[in-house]
Amino acid sequence: xxxxxxxxxxxxxxxxxxxxxxxxxAQKTGLDADxxxxxxxxxxxxxxxxxxxxxxxxxxxTIGILAALGREELALHLRASRNTGVDPKEIAEVxxxxxxxxxxxxxxxxxxxxxxxxxxxxxxxxx
Length: 127
Fold this sequence. Notes:
Blueprint: H1 2-16, H2 18-27, H3 33-47, H4 55-69, H5 74-80, H6 88-101, H7 104-118
Helix pairs in contact: 1-2, 1-3, 4-5, 4-6, 5-7, 6-7
C-alpha cells in the first residue's frame, strides 16, 4: 500500500506541482487525512500512474470531465496542464466538445475559468 501512496505522491507532485502538494499536505487535518491519503493512493497512485494513457491525455480527459460536471477542481487542473504538456488551444477544443456533449452553460463557465487561469501574467493575461 505504501508503494501506491509513494507512487501517487510522485505523480501528484509532477502534475500539480510540488508547492501545491506541500500546501495541501500542510493544510491536512485529522478530519481529512484519510481522504487525502485515499485520493493520493487511488487517483494519483492507481489511475494517473497507469501506463496506457500519457499525462497529457489524462490531463485533457480530466479537464473535460471536470468542465462537464461544473467542478471547481477544474481550476487546479487548468493550472496543472502547464506541467502535462497541454497547449491552451487543446483545452479550447476540449471545451468545445463539452459544449456539444454536456451543454453550453457548462462550457461557458469552463471557458471563463480557463481564461482566468491560462491567460495569467505569465501568459500575458490579467491573472
